[in-house]
Each structure stands twice: as structure tokens, then as C-alpha cells.
């Protein structure tokens, strides 16, 4: 049950009501006051003050002051009249409730309206700002356009002026020339003091003239000028030929079509292969430091091959491959050893593996690829698989068309094939 | 870089635009006049020469000449000012010199090359340069030939590939160094990026280099002086400016290169009135105006004591995009500073005026 605050005091004028409400120690905040047109409530739990006002008031302009434990209300009447009392007498419960609810509703509606109004004004402000900026930008653009137009017109005028000058200049010069020519034709006929005139005429000839030149005396004079010009000009050059070479390029195409990308890839692959080491073999612990280096092993293998110790070379290459199975040269050299040892199938395997590793095909690994093809071809031929062998020889020839031995060997194989086909 | 209006930069103003009914390959001003020529190829496979005159804000067609073969390039460089004969190279390899007053029969005609003549240049005429008037043509058949209009049928100089060498298309040629009666050089650019400088006095190859991308256009800044600068433009938006005053025995000429745009730079043309200003036209339909600044010292000694050149710097003055198609030809008027004509592959020819060139 709320505690009713009943010790209020009030006084009135024609237009306003002044109500003073002591709060008995309770603290009031602006949120605890609720006021509508005819209903006033102050609720500070557990205290409660409620009043159905005698007549409607203007609740937007009315004020409440919270001070010293009191609330002072200044309520402005809607209609200036003297009230008999602050509140409506004989207010029964239902009417009270109805009025209360009404008041609440009204307050809500008011709040809504206020927010609506706020929104609308905000939008309008935004629109205005936008339009203002648009206008400014338009002006800027126009200014620039105007400047450009002015430039254009100025320049067009200058052009016209220049053109007219040209035309006038030409007319004047042509008239001048006609007069001078008339004057000069007599001295020319006399063939005296020609030197002076002759030197003058070529100068006239090179001055500004129009495309349509007048004929007649001009023609005869221009003959003179032509002859003079030719005397001054050197004779045509003696014909000669200069031979040129063009910059040799492996790929005769422009930079954008070059195979630089593939060359890069190849180099990259090589670098990677070198770095990789299969180091997870237990037997490696027995080896000396240098024997763990695939390059050193490869060199050892090469030496043994050169001395004829093919089995030793194979061993060396085997170990190297176990250490690093990405180096194509190891397989290539091992294939050569197997060829010598007549392990033809192994030779073919190794050459194939080498070729696999030698992609992408770039000039850098041309030599290696040629060797691989030749070795595989030889192995095939020795196994009497002549067609496969020929294929490999032709591939080698494609890479290196200038190698005579490969050509001759390929020819031999072709003959062999034809020979066997005929006999079978 | 956008056009800064109101600053002191030169502006490129588009004065007249003329739509054509054929593909225009070359456009040239007729010297000492406000007339211009457009050379090209009609859809039916014949060559067209049109002569226009500038009248106020439009071009008036004065004359149209049709020839059996499409015409690729032309020059007034080798004629005298009275005659103003036009030398053209066509798609069939024929070099013709026409008198535009009487264009039915050419004044000079020779089947110079087996394939299309890509580029032509003339020197010794128009009161510019000394020595005999000569015309040089560069063709797809890999040869560069120099012709004298007084000698029929055979060229006076022929730069051809060595026997057995595979040929490269020659895309551009230019004369230079014609400062007295004997001296003359021809510079040729090829599609594999080769630039070769031939000396016609000694009939030898004076210098060659390779700029990796096909060379679309070369031009000396002036034909009639001791050779000063050479600009070579290429595919992929690069151009090189070579300082031609100092030739090092091994390193050749010093150069500075600039990447202007992503597309091919089709043409470079120096302003006739100021040899340090040039315009490049690009495959994206844009024009760039550049200025070259010389370095403090144009040559210095290297470690062995031989002279080598020092290249300067190039700065962009202005750029403008006029079309969506490449601008394939460009010519400055020799009479009015800043007036130029350009022809593009969108079948239009445009007359432009570049302002404020006096203030550079």
C-alpha cells in the first residue's frame, strides 16, 4: 500500500496554479513525476501523490521544481478561470482509473509525436546539407568548364588570325614577286649581272608560296631556280648495301612471349633439388662426412667411369641417389654405366627417370636431354626394339639438329628397321 | 595525372573532330598552309588520300584521291616548298611520289619492297637540312632502303639482312644528322626490339642496340642538326630517350627510359619549334606531352678515360585521353606552334591545339 502524500498546499492566479508538495524526506527525480492534461502523479515508492485536476492544464509548458525536499509545480491553465479546488471532487474509483489510463495514453501519444517530429526535422536537415554540397560541386565543375571553353575560344581565334595572316602574306608575296619578275626579266634577257639575280631567285623560290602557283613567266624563272638548285645539290649517292644482323635470340619473339618463366622454373627446381637430402637412412651413420655429399659421390662415380670401373661407379651413383633422388645428372650417368655393363633395362629406366627430372625443357638442360635420349635409344636398339630406339634418336635430333653422329646413328637404325621389315 | 586547369600547364584542346569512312593510317600537315592530308585504306581495299582545309571549327574536304592499293604512310620531307610533292608507301611495297595537283600519274614510282612499307621519312626538302633530298622506307621484308627521286629503280642505299639470316620486320625509320651535304644517318627500329643506326656517309652500321620490345616509332629531335637526341618508343608502354652527342666505343649512347602507360606507344613526334618537347600517342587512345631536361653535364669520362654520355630526365607535362582506339598517327604543324593533327583507329581525325607551349 503506498503512502499517500496529502500535505500539499496550493494557490492560484487566473492563468496558473502553484502547487507545493512536501516530500517527507523522500528523494524526487524528474522520472518520478508524471503529468498529463488533467492528471498529475508523483510516485516515489513508497510515497504516492495523485491529483485529478479541476480543469485541463497545458502540460508542455508547466514546470516542476524539485528543491529542499519539496516539489513546486507551476501549472499553466488551459482556460483562464478560477478553480474552486485543486482536484475534482466526487471522483469515484472508476472515473479515476479511466482518467489515469487516458492520461497515460495521451502521454504516450505525445511522446510518439515528438519523436516523429524530431525525425522529420533531422531528415530535412540532412537533405539540405546534401543539396548544398551538390550545388557547390556543380559550381566548381562549371567553373572548370568555363575556363576550358575560354581557352578553346581564345585558341580558335588565334588560329583564325594566323590563317588569315597566311593568306594575306601569300597574296602580298605573290604580288610582290610578279612585280619583281617583270622588272628582272629584262636584265635576264641581257645575260648581264645574272649572277646577282640568280642568287636572288633561288631565295625567292624558297620563300612562302601557295600550292597553286601561277604559270608563264614564273615557269621560266623557276627553270633557272631548278638548275641552280641542282648545281648546289650533290649528285645521287653511289648505290651501296649495308648488311645487317639481327640480335640473336633463342626465342625470336618479344619479351612478353619469352620463355623466361620456364627458365626460371628450371633453375628453381635445380636449386631445390640440391638442397634436399634424404637423411633418414641408418646406414648413413657409417659413412664419412664427404661420402654424404651427393656431388662428391657423383664426381667419384664420374672418375670411376672414366677409368672403366663401371660397377664402382654404379655403387657411387646408387649411394648418391639414396641421399638425393632429385638430381637428374645422377640418373643420367648411372644410365651410361648400365649401358656399358649391358644392363639395358636398367639403363632405360635411369634415362627415363633422368628425362622426367629434366622438365621444363629449356636451353640450359639441352645437353643433358640429348644425352638421355641417346642413351635410352642405344639401350632400345641393343634390345632390338629398333622403333623405340629410333623415336629416341629423333627426339635427340630435334633438340640438337646439328649433331652429325646422332644423325648417322639414326640413319643406321632406319636402315636396320627397313632391313628387318623386308626380311620378315 | 589529370589536367590541372588554371595552372601553368599546357592544355590540349580538341579543336575539330572529323569522322572518316575509311581507316586512317597517317595524317600530315601540308607545309606552309592550313591544310592537312589523311592517308588510309578504304573498306574495299583501295587507298585513299584526302586533303582537308581548316575552316573555323570544321574541316572542309578539298579533294579526295583514290589509288589501287591501300596507303600506309607518307611524308613531305623530301620535296621543295614550291612543289610540295607527297611521297607515299603502300601496302604492296610501292614507293610513289605524287603531285597533288595532278594525282593521276605519280611523279616517281618504284616497287621498292616485297612487302608492305611500314614507315617512310624524307630529308633535304622544305628548306630543312642540307644535301640531296632523299627518302627512306622501312618494310616488313626486313630491309631499309634509301631512295633519291632523281634515280629511278634502284635505291641509293640498301640495308638488308645477311644471307641466310631470318628477317625481322622493320617498323619505323627516321633520318637524322643531316647538318651538311655529306653527313646523314638513318635510324631503323625493328619488331624484335633492335634499333640500328646506319651512317650513309661511310655506308656502315654505326650503332645498334636492343630494347627488348618491338620498336614502334623512332624520331630524332631535329633532322638537320648534329644529332642530339633520339626517342624510340616500343610495345608495352615504354619509350627511351638516347643522348646522341657522345658515343662510347662499347656502351653506345646513354639513355633514359620511361614507362608511360600499359599500352603500346604508337608514335612519337617532336615539336618543330622546341626540340625538347615531344608528344607520344598510345594504344589506349591517349596523348602524353613530355619535356626533356638536360643533365648538368652531358658527358663524362669513364674509368678508361673515354667519353660517355649522360642522359637527362623526362617529365610529363600533360596527358589527355581522346579515344578508345589507338592513336596511330600524329603530326605537328610546322607553321603554327601547338597545332597538331592525330588520326586514330576509330576512323576519326582530330585537330588539337596545345596551349601555353611558350611558357615551358
From TrEMBL, chain A:
Compartment(s): Cell projection, Neuron projection; Dynein axonemal particle; Nucleus
Pfam name, any one: CS
Domain of life from the UniProt record: Eukaryota
tRNA-binding recorded as keyword: no
GO molecular function, one term: nuclear estrogen receptor binding
Coiled coil: 130-157
TPR repeats: 370-403
PROSITE patterns on file: CS, TPR
Annotated GO biological process: determination of left/right symmetry; epithelial cilium movement involved in extracellular fluid movement; heart development; inner dynein arm assembly; nervous system development; outer dynein arm assembly
PANTHER family: DYNEIN ASSEMBLY FACTOR 4, AXONEMAL, DYNEIN AXONEMAL ASSEMBLY FACTOR 4
Name the record gives this protein: Dynein axonemal assembly factor 4
From TrEMBL, chain B:
Keyword Repeat listed: yes
BP term (GO), one: apoptotic process
InterPro entries recorded: WD40/YVTN_repeat-like_dom_sf, WD40_PAC1, WD40_repeat_dom_sf, WD40_rpt
Organism the protein comes from: Brachypodius melanocephalos
Record-level GO cellular component terms: dynein axonemal particle
Cellular localisation: Dynein axonemal particle
Any coiled-coil regions, as ranges: none
Function summary: Key assembly factor specifically required for the stability of axonemal dynein heavy chains in cytoplasm.
Name of this chain's protein: Dynein axonemal assembly factor 10
Alphabetized SUPFAM superfamilies for the sequence: WD40 repeat-like
Amino acid at each position: 500500500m503506498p503512502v499517500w502524500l496529502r500535505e500539499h498546499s496550493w494557490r492560484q492566479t487566473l492563468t496558473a496554479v502553484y502547487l507545493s508538495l512536501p516530500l517527507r524526506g523522500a528523494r524526487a527525480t524528474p522520472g518520478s513525476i508524471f503529468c498529463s492534461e488533467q492528471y498529475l502523479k508523483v510516485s516515489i515508492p513508497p510515497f504516492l501523490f495523485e491529483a485529478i485536476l479541476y480543469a485541463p492544464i497545458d502540460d508542455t509548458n508547466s514546470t516542476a521544481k524539485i528543491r529542499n525536499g519539496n516539489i513546486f509545480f507551476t501549472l499553466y491553465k488551459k482556460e483562464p478561470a478560477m478553480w474552486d479546488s485543486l482536484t475534482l471532487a466526487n471522483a469515484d474509483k472508476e472515473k479515476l482509473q479511466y482518467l489515469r489510463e487516458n492520461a497515460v495514453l495521451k502521454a504516450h501519444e505525445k511522446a510518439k509525436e515528438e519523436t516523429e517530429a524530431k525525425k522529420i526535422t533531422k531528415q530535412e536537415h540532412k537533405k539540405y546539407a546534401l543539396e548544398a554540397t551538390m550545388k557547390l560541386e556543380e559550381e566548381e565543375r562549371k567553373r572548370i568548364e568555363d575556363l576550358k571553353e575560354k581557352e578553346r575560344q581564345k585558341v580558335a581565334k588565334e588560329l583564325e588570325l594566323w590563317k588569315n595572316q597566311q593568306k594575306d602574306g601569300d597574296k602580298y608575296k605573290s604580288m610582290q614577286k610578279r612585280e619583281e619578275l617583270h622588272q628582272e626579266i629584262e636584265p635576264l634577257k641581257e645575260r648581264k649581272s645574272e649572277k646577282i639575280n640568280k642568287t636572288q631567285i633561288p631565295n625567292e623560290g624558297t620563300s612562302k608560296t601557295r600550292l597553286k602557283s601561277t604559270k608563264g613567266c614564273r615557269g621560266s624563272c623557276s627553270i633557272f631556280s631548278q638548275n641552280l638548285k641542282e648545281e648546289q645539290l650533290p649528285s645521287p649517292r653511289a648505290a651501296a648495301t649495308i648488311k645487317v644482323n639481327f640480335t640473336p635470340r633463342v626465342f625470336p619473339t618479344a619479351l612478353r612471349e619469352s620463355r623466361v618463366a620456364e627458365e626460371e622454373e628450371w633453375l628453381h627446381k635445380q636449386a631445390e633439388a640440391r638442397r634436399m637430402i634424404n637423411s633418414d637412412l641408418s646406414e648413413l651413420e657409417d659413412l664419412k662426412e664427404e661420402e654424404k655429399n651427393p656431388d662428391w659421390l657423383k664426381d667419384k662415380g664420374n672418375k670411376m667411369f672414366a677409368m672403366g670401373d663401371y660397377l664402382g661407379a654404379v655403387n657411387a651413383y646408387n649411394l648418391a641417389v639414396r641421399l638425393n633422388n632429385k638430381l637428374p645428372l645422377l640418373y643420367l650417368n648411372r644410365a651410361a654405366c648400365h649401358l656399358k655393363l649391358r644392363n639395358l633395362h636398367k639403363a632405360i629406366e635411369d634415362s627415363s627417370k633422368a628425362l622426367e627430372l629434366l622438365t621444363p625443357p629449356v636451353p640450359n638442360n639441352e645437353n643433358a636431354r640429348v644425352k638421355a635420349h641417346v642413351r635410352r635409344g642405344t639401350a632400345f636398339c641393343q634390345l632390338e626394339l629398333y622403333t623405340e630406339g629410333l623415336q629416341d634418336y629423333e627426339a635427340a635430333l630435334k633438340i640438337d639438329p646439328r649433331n652429325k653422329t646422332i644423325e648417322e646413328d639414326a640413319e643406321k637404325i632406319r636402315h636396320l628397321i627397313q632391313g628387318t621389315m623386308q626380311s620378315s | 595525372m589529370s589536367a590541372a586547369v588554371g595552372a601553368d600547364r599546357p592544355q590540349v584542346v580538341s579543336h575539330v573532330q572529323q569522322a572518316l569512312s575509311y581507316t586512317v593510317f597517317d595524317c600530315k600537315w601540308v607545309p606552309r598552309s592550313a591544310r592537312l592530308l589523311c592517308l588510309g585504306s578504304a573498306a574495299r581495299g583501295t587507298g585513299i588520300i584526302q586533303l582537308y582545309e581548316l575552316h573555323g571549327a570544321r574541316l572542309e574536304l578539298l579533294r579526295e584521291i583514290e589509288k589501287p592499293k591501300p596507303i600506309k604512310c607518307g611524308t613531305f620531307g623530301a620535296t621543295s616548298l614550291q612543289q610540295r610533292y607527297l611521297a607515299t608507301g603502300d601496302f604492296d611495297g610501292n614507293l610513289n611520289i605524287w603531285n597533288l595537283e595532278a594525282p593521276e600519274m605519280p611523279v616517281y614510282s618504284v616497287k621498292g619492297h616485297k612487302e608492305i612499307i611500314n614507315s617512310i621519312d624524307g630529308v633535304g626538302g622544305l628548306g630543312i637540312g642540307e644535301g640531296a633530298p632523299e627518302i627512306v622506307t622501312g618494310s616488313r621484308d626486313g630491309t631499309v632502303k634509301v631512295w633519291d627521286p632523281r634515280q629511278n629503280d634502284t635505291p641509293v642505299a640498301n640495308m638488308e639482312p645477311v644471307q641466310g639470316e631470318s628477317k625481322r620486320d622493320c617498323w619505323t625509320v627516321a633520318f637524322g644528322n643531316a647538318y651538311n651535304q655529306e653527313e646523314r644517318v638513318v635510324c631503323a627500329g625493328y619488331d624484335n626490339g633492335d634499333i640500328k643506326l646506319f651512317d650513309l656517309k661511310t655506308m656502315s652500321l654505326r650503332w645498334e642496340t636492343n630494347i627488348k620490345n618491338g620498336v614502334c616509332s623512332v624520331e630524332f629531335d631535329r633532322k638537320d642538326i648534329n644529332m642530339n637526341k633520339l626517342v624510340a618508343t616500343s610495345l608495352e608502354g615504354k619509350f627511351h630517350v638516347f643522348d646522341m652527342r657522345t658515343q662510347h666505343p662499347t656502351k653506345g649512347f646513354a639513355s633514359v627510359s620511361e614507362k608511360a602507360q600499359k599500352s603500346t606507344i604508337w608514335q612519337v613526334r617532336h615539336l618543330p619549334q622546341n626540340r625538347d618537347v615531344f608528344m607520344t600517342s598510345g594504344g589506349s587512345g591517349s596523348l602524353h606531352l613530355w619535356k626533356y631536361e638536360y643533365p648538368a653535364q652531358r658527358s663524362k669520362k669513364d674509368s678508361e678515360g673515354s667519353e660517355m654520355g649522360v642522359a637527362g630526365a623526362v617529365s610529363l607535362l600533360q596527358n589527355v585521353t581522346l579515344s578508345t582506339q589507338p592513336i596511330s598517327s600524329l603530326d605537328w604543324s610546322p607553321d603554327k606552334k601547338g597545332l597538331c593533327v592525330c588520326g586514330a583507329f576509330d576512323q576519326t581525325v582530330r585537330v588539337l591545339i596545345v596551349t601555353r607551349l611558350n611558357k615551358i
